[in-house]
Amino acid sequence: MPSLGHLLAFGALLLPAISVAGPQSPTERFEARYRSARTLRAEFLERYSENGKLIRAEAGIAYFRKPGKMRWQYEKPENNLFLVDGKTAWLYTPADHTATKVPARQSEDWRTPFVLLAGGMKLSRICAKVESTSLLLPQNPADATLECKLKGAGAARTANPEDAPPQVFFEISVNGELVRLLLRSPGGVETEFQFKNWQINPSVPDSMFQFSPPPGVVIVDGLLPTSPGFRQ
Hints:
Distance between the termini: 8 Å
Order of helices and strands: HHEEEEEEEEHEEEE
CATH architecture: Clam
Number of strands: 12
Largest sheet: 12 strands, mixed
């Protein structure tokens, strides 16, 4: 199951209003698709690989509500839950009878941009530049592939290559839907999210973004990840 920080980073990428010059650009289509959405729902497949070898694949349903709430409901191969209620991020593993919590605004580090989920979310808060790329081949030839150049990425790579931030890529369909998001980290580590069946403004009760620990569940105060590795 993914780390708290990277799922929060993904949520920050998904819900902002993106401003890029030029009509009909992929980012403009993306903005038009999601800008007015208050809630979103999508089916997702998450794939974690090391040096080209698939280590784990998980699938489920993700829900988003502005401002700053999201629910990742993992269904295969195990039932797990990652939830952000606006103040606290929860990682619940039923099999371990454990729930880890982290304050949602604990860090503004690029790995855990919790601040983006609390107010006026803009991609420019974490990306110095968004540009077309050939480093990610689209699943559909008509789709566009883009790279988010993370702020501070160059300095991090210069200081210590092992601690360098991941490369962030995303694939946008012709109608502006997010098809895929890929993070490439040092050491050959890749985490990919694929999405389908997006729903705009579905009816989602607020209770879906509230976590009530079941009886007997141990609550643990979590620590934020200190490296760009995606899994804890």
